[in-house]
Amino acid sequence: MVGIGAFRRKKNTVPAEGIEITFASQAVKDPENHLKKPNAKAAETVTNCCCCGTSLKHPQCVRKLKCSRCHCTIDLAPKTSHYVTKTLNFTMQAFESVVTLCYARYTEDKSRLGTHITKNQLHDAFQPIEVFLEDLFSSVDHLNSFCDSTGAKCKIFDSKTVSHFYTAILQLPTKRPLYKLLINSNNRLKRPQANLNSDESISNLKQLRWILMIFENPLLRESLVFNDDAKPMAPHIRAIQYEIIKRCVGYLALVNAATGKELVTYLQSLSSAHFGSQLDLINLYVTFHFSRILRKRAKAEASLGSPDLDEFCTDVKLNPKKANNDFETIPQMVSKFWNNNRRPDNELPANFKFNVADYGNDWHVRTAAKLEFFYFVANQCKRKCSISRFYNMLSDYLDFKKDFDQWRTKQKRRAPESLLFSLETLDDVVLMPHFLSGLKHPETQFTMCQYPYVLSLGIKISIMEYEIRKAMEHSAEQAFLKALDKKQVVDVYLRVRIRRDHVSQDSLRCIESHHSDLRKSLRVEFINEPGIDAGGLRKEWFSLLTRELFNPDNGLFVVVEESRFSWFNIAYEDVDNGIGHATKLYYLFGVVLGLAIYNGTILDVSFPMALYKKLCGEPLSTRDFLELYPVTGKNLRKMMDYEGMDFEEVFSLNFEISYSNAWGTKIHKRELREGGSSIPVTRENRNEYARLWMDFHMNQAIAISFDVFLNGFKKVVKSDAFQLFNSEEVEQLLCGSHETDLDVDTLRSITKYGGGILRSSSVVEWFWEIFVEFNGDQKRKLLEFVTGSDRIPATGISTIPFKISRLGSDSDRLPLAHTCFNELCVYEYSSRSKLHQKLLIAINESEGYGFR
Q1: What biological-process GO terms show up in the record (predicted)?
Q2: Distance between CA 689 and CA 30 in Å, rounded?
């Protein structure tokens, strides 16, 4: 049901430190036809709630609605408030003046009465602050006027000044102004006095500054956590703070495209710490609502006699049979187990999964995830934090198979959503995505795959493995049926048979002859070498092939001296020589990268983020150019900043570029625009010159070679799950974690033992002592000897299934490794020095499945 009509002025009472305070609601009465019953035959229309997005059907004559879902009042025809304020100047200076006067009166009363000052006298001394706050929050215009007075450089408001406003209230010797602030903030959000559904009424972010100001309240986080060391917060105050978060998130998540662009610009202006703090609050809000789902599930399963969740909730002081107040129980669980998005110490039952039906219709989770999108876009343009900070670790408990299948079904019914950016100058320009225009019309049920930035990298990898496994099973099944139909043997694997001295030629031959089998499970065989591929041979092949493709003699890639990153050779025509050999190798490299992702193998490559952005379809930014060409970028910046009238004489540039081939034997010239060789670069057109220069190196010069490479990559990676990964995550998939030092203690804690060897065996103790003593290079060589790669997986070293087995008693033979299973096999050597010597020989002299 939707409540229709005007609101009466009413009294509200909130206990504060033993004193009852009374204040008037700021709702404006409808002077015309108060509580008039609408005509049932009147024309009807639909309005979407500005907070939760719910579609509300109502007669056109109605001026106000009350959403039955989030209980927010929607003013369809906002009027000027008749409220007469006692304070005419709503500025930060006016507030500070009021605070100063209150402290002066308090000091006077304290010096006069000493310790005998009563609570009533204390409250009376600071009552003008309460009056100021009530007047301030009586109107959205007053709040926006207050934001104007902060002198914001970003044209919204100065968050530091707003923080000072809240700090001043928190430091008062009485808490009544704080309670007044919370209550008035909530009332203003419940009755915003503006039609936030209308694109015409909310045309820019300035009209939503009051929401951003309320969202800056540092106490909001406390409604979602419980600190055992702090004084417990009153449940009704915690509930008010939660209501404030809920409405702020709802309003900001459902803005239109134009306002969304301004919101991203504002978020880019925040400091990294401030940006991260707000992101953590939204993520904690998502965690809070998943915890509520957990509580409901626990109550339901406890009533059915299921012991697992009932016992778990009892352990976290969340007894589903006795708890009645969400705000007395859920924050304790959130704080103790999922605060700051960390995995709980006490794990949930192993078979526990959040079903799509549990959260698919929860508007709280949906609006929070949508709001995080604006933070994600801002972070993509100006990096404020690691992508992992967006992850909500409770996503690891999703029933990801059903979520992904449902999302994939919806994806096939509509065009994919994509982000749009542009590279115009040395400053980033952001265009908002197409789908923002549809944010005000949410679907009845959503999936978490619609908001992939919230999903952890581990769950995304699980989703991709699930899809790959289904694809491999399908390919194997089709091969089997084809074999039956044609009565001939058809291999269910993609088999690559190569000679170690002709890796690229043999690999290209195998891929060309099996181009339709690239999505089958990969098996590698080195000719004239022993070994059955269970993963180890595959790792060796990837390593050798990438090493040969990056050989400078091939000229496919060059190492940019400015950054030491590899990049496509812009003198592509010199490499190809018209015979197409380089084209085939670029295609092969694309296939190799696709197979590496498809088979979960880490590669030893060093590309800038620009490559992974281009793979994911993310347009490049100035930051990508500066990462690859930092020195050139600084020179362009100097040119852009030069203000002398002798610009053309100093720089003497035309719209033309010169470059040499990979071996420096030939110089090429290209015009950046038609007739560019005769067009000088001036102060007026230097922006265009800088844009064309960057675009040439990042896109135009490598267009042919990159397209060939991309075709090879897409020949393998035709995965819907790949759309869930962003460029930073794809880099981690291909190159492993960014960790530079091996955490030996963590690796030791997850290591398993077999073949009769024990964790307490002398040789095991010696091994870990030696491992710790090794320098960085030796540690990585040992890791490569055992696992086939010196890189740590994207999900961390704790996910490596490391194993140590016993070969036998003391021997002069070297240790062995089964890279397929990440297993090190050692003898029980008689001394520590002997083990140390044997390990050094093994890691330095071994190659493939033999010795150098």
Answers
A1: protein polyubiquitination
A2: 60
Residue-wise pLDDT for 752-778, tens only, equals 888 888 888 888 899 998 888 888 888
* 299 three-class SS: helix
Residue 281 CB: number of other CB atoms within 10 A? 18
Residue with tokens 């406003």: 165
Q: What pLDDT score was predicted for residue 366?
A: 92
Q: How far apart are CA 15 and CA 827, in angstroms?
A: 74
431 burial via Cβ count (<10 Å: 0-12, 13-18, 19+): middle
Q: Do 724 and 744 sit in the same domain of this protein? A: no
Closest to 61 in 3D by CA, of 43, 78, 48:
43
442/497 same-domain check? no
Q: Is residue 628 part of a domain?
A: yes
CATH code of the domain in which 644 resides: 3.30.2160.10
Residue 472 lies in a domain: yes
Number of folded domains that form the chain: 5
Angle in degrees, 0-180, between the axes of helices 176-190 and 159-170, rounded to the nearest 10 = 130
The closest alpha carbon to 92, from 173, 172, 168, belongs to: 168
In a shared domain, residues 41 and 15: yes
What is the model's pLDDT at position 317?
39
Q: What is the distance between the alpha carbons of residues 94 and 100, in angstroms, rounded to a whole number?
A: 10
Range of the domain at 117: 3-218
Give the residue numbers marked as catalytic: 820
The C-alpha atoms of residue 724 and residue 92 are separated, in whole angstroms, by 45
pLDDT of residue 472 exceeding 60? yes
Of 797, 720, 807, 704, which Cα lies nearest the Cα of 755?
807
Token pair of 651 as six digits: 């720089």
Handedness of CA 357, 361, 365, 370 (dihedral sign): positive
Alpha-helix runs per DSSP H in 53-175: 92-113, 119-125, 127-136, 140-148, 159-170
pLDDT band at 454 (very low <50, low <70, confident <90, very high): very high
Rg (CA), the chain: 32
Between CA 559 and CA 232 the distance in angstroms is: 59
Q: What is the DSSP string of 395-452?
A: GGGB-HHHHHHHHHHHHTTSPPP--EEE--SSS-EEE--GGGGGTTS--SS--GGGSG
Sign of CA pseudo-dihedral 281, 176, 51, 135: negative
Backbone angles phi, psi at 47, to 5 degrees: -125, 135
HSE-CB at 319 with a 13 A cutoff on CA atoms is 3
What are the angstrom distances between the C-alpha of 797 and each of 156, 392, 448, 788, 847? 44, 20, 27, 14, 24
Please indicate, yes or no, whether residues 556 and 628 belong to a single structural domain of this protein: no
Q: What is the pLDDT of residues 562-603, one digit of tens each?
A: 998 999 988 766 665 555 678 888 888 898 898 888 877 888
Q: Are strands 64-66 and 55-59 parallel, antiparallel or unpaired?
A: unpaired
Q: CA dist 663 to 547, 559, 569, 703, Å?
A: 19, 12, 10, 21
H helical segments located in 254-271: 257-269
429-431 and 420-422: which strand pairing? antiparallel
Contact status, residue 176 vs residue 188, Cβ threshold 8 Å? no
Same domain (yes/no): 290, 374: yes
Q: Strand 667-671 relative to strand 656-660: parallel, antiparallel, unpaired?
A: antiparallel
Angle separating helix axes 832-845 and 776-787, nearest 10 degrees: 70
The rounded distance, in Å, linking the Cα atoms of 234 and 97 is: 31
